[in-house]
């Protein structure tokens, strides 16, 4: 993998817009959640975008996080004893987290790419993925989420309704209000439009 130098001009402008999306307050909340969810042995990152990136970069903490949302016997990601030091192993670990997060229910549009985290290209996307994961965990409410439920918004859930056949039949005779009303409608007092047709013989 080639080292990427500083960016200039248009690419610098784009990169600075991406960096502005990063939320420092959200970082604090996510760090607190990860520590509560995984245990204090994960440590605490230095404040700021770079510290957050370095903390999560090798994929081990992310893997522990997604594993902590599953029951004891079915952990989706194998976490190595010693954190990987080789670049491709670290990227592989991050990719395993992303696969497990997707299987857990995080939608594709909320997922970051491995390089977003590994090269620090878009740490806001990393925050978005972790927020989506936290929201899902709170929504599922299966006893594996630890921490304050108010840290994340619950996702909207399907509310299925069952109707009896008689209720469905009644519904066919109701005129929806979007169609207007037919109450009091009559043709009394109506006259034809325009002049009557003149028949000249």
From TrEMBL:
CDD domains reported in the protein's UniProt record: CH_TAGLN
Keywords: Acetylation, Cytoplasm, Muscle protein
Signal peptide: none
SUPFAM superfamilies cross-referenced by the UniProt entry: Calponin-homology domain, CH-domain
Pfam (any one): CH
Gene3D superfamilies per UniProt: Calponin-like domain
One Gene Ontology cellular component: cytoplasm
Localization annotation: Cytoplasm
Protein name: Transgelin
Gene that encodes the chain: TAGLN
